[in-house]
Write a structure and sequence with these properties.
Blueprint (H helix, E strand, L loop, with lengths): L1 H19 L4 H22 L1 H4 L3 H25 L11 H31 L4 H26 L1 H15 L1 H5 L3 H19 L17 H7 L2 E6 L6 E5 L6 E6 L2 E7 L5 H9 L5 H5 L5 E5 L5 H8 L4 E6 L2 H10 L13 E5 L2 H7 L4 E8 L2 H8 L13 H9 L1 E13 L7 H16 L9 E8 L2 E8 L6 H13 L3 E6 L8 H7 L5 H7 L20 H6 L15 H22 L6 H5 L4 H25 L1 H4 L2 H23 L6 H29 L5 H31 L5 H30 L1 H20 L6 H4 L1
Parallel strand pairs: 5-6, 5-8, 6-7, 8-9
Antiparallel strand pairs: 1-2, 2-3, 3-4, 9-11, 10-11, 10-12
Helix pairs in contact: 1-2, 1-5, 1-6, 1-7, 2-5, 2-23, 2-30, 4-5, 4-7, 4-9, 5-30, 6-7, 6-27, 6-29, 7-9, 11-13, 17-18, 18-20, 23-30, 25-27, 25-29, 25-30, 25-31, 27-29, 28-29, 28-31, 29-30, 30-31
Length: 789
Amino acid sequence: MISFAALLLEISYTRVFSFKVSSYYTFLIIGIALLGIGAGGVFVALWRRLRAVPTERLLWRLSLVAAAGIAVSYFGVAGVALDTLNPPSSPGPVLRLAWVCLLMFASFVGIGLMIAVIFTRRAETIGRVYTADLMGAGLGCAAAIPLMIVLTPPGCVFAAGAAVALAGIRPARAHTRSGAWASLALAAVLGAVAVGARSLPDPVVDPVKTLSPGKLARWGFTSVFARWHPVFRVDVLESKLMPDAKALVHDGDWGSALHRFDGDLDAARERYENSSRRLPFAVAKPRPRVLILGSAGGNEILASLVFDAEHITAVELNPVTVSLVREHFADFTGRLAEYPQVDLVNAEGRSFLSRDRQKSDLIYFVAPDSYASMNGQASGFVLVESYLYTREMVREVVSHLNPGGILCMQFGEVAYASKPNRTARFLATARAAFGDLGIQDFGRHVLRATNKDFPIELSTILLSPQPFSEAQSEEFLRIVATIPRATPRYAWQRDLGRDFPNAVISLPAADLEQLYRGYPYEIRPVTDDAPFFWHFARFRDVLSRNNPALAHPIGPEDGRGESALLVMLFVAGGLSAVFLLLPFVAVRARWAELPAKGRAALYFACLGLGFMFFEVVLIQKLTLFLGYPTYTLTVTLFALLVFSGLGSLASARYLESRDRVVPWLMAALGVLAVFYAYGLGPAANALAALPLAARIALVAAALAPLGLVLGAFMPLGLTTVSRLGPHATEYVAWGWAINGVFSVIGSIGATILSMTYGFRAVLLVALLLYVVAAVTLWRVPLQSRDAAV
């Protein structure tokens, strides 16, 4: 129950903070959760008065305090206005962030105290206890998604508190009947708040977000719809300044819009004749079959109807967004989903393509709001949108085009003249993909233009596996000339200037690497192994601050996310050292008596880093296979934790033959790591067309052996150190603390390394860490506690 509550609380807070501030804070939440739980172990080990309290009485009291603390902390976390997306101009924003971190830490430290009490007082059955811990955590992962849909993420915070209170009932009954009633009453109150969570005040968002009170007042926005969802929260706003449209807000920031349509296609044509959405239809075949990836509020569906598409398949990730067009605002948007030639599908675009057997004449990527969408998707390590813009994805799209078919990509550029990063990177990626297909004259396959569309400049890129004819190019240029504030940028038979994206298109292949190296941002082609399309600022530039382009940030690609990750890495590591390691100074005499501390520290550090590296990367890699980010997060964590629990339980059988078993564990881990690094992708692609239930079962089967192997290492280590001397409690807490410190670092470090070197490299590093751990464990003697004394 306690571990169930811990994971439910952790996952719920990642969604709250994606809405409140940014998805980057997912990593901070995970770090604070690990920090609080690890600190609980340290406090139990070092606080003598706690150890004097009978177990049942202590667990009951801790459950009441922890459950109440979760509820009280939430109001503080939700109500504090953070201003972290702008560079701090005073200590205030930093202090408010520190206060919020302290409140969340308080929520998790109570849970950590309860877990540590059970661990340290049941050291002789650590395998069974650790199994229960992982099983409960796995069930918390499995329940988080459906509970967030029913209760909302804030409601799930209170549900976690209710679960902690319920966990105290059984130990309370062993101590006092009135205590059990008190626990039940608290659980009932928190459960009632969870059920009625839609009446709770919304968390206060960062001032730069659309839903901040200042921006709502400035634009005269009023909310007409709000719905939480595990993918991202959706709000619909209306204003007198926008009589014919409603703002579609994703996780607190403007993402798209719903446009009024009364069913008159001729009247709508006037709007689209002067829009960049006309461009792909200008060169596509008449009455094209259209596939739209990211249909949002239906703007491109309507454009396709206006330009006489024969059939339209519109794919949208968030089911709440789909419901806006189908149900809640169906009349406002002209019931687009009910047109006989329109199929509106709730799916992730890349996964949909891998299973779809139809071919299209136009595949239309709608990405002017990509940062808003990415903000919602990154929660729980799942940066799913990036998989839409990789080298492999371009090849996948080409395979789904009819002869003469066109890929249309549109990006909103914050400052096209000075840093056309999104346009340049996609062109670099497309050029590499076309090269894979044997197409060397890339420039003959590209048309592009930009037009100023407040507050961005919209970049339109048209690609075709067949060279564009001169007639198509001339028609494209003619239509661009009719669009207000539009500029033609590239057509193969015209000299339209030498801006940077044109250099990416036309420079000889031998000179491309030098071009990429000299550009102030990272715009090399993106692959599925490192699908971080939006990672433009190099980490070394963010650290050194030698890149002049990052000196005056004006957009999300100016190192904002990279800086946040680095700051969180150092802050989380520093806080971990303070709360998990520094307290041992208070018992340095007893701590000094612990034998083999250095080897034990190295062992538990490698486990903390290695486990998180496997976990984070596998969640990412399996997103394409399961096709829906929330399924991936839930299924992957559930499978890993549950089978790790079973591996922990099995480890009790071979503890005494530890040194003979560990080589077999490492051999199995080596085979698995190589398969995940090199074979998982091809296997997933081959089986992508299977039904969802079958894919979920395959993921569980693929992760089962990894969980069984990884689950053995922690109880083997904890049992080993608990036998090394008279201070078993302190040693178990020390190992737990070291593991916690490096799990915190690993949760963030895995993402940084993946962004820099790719998933395959991180998996191989994870394997190396376990090799180091195994070698270290062999050097720690396995002996009974009595023998050690």
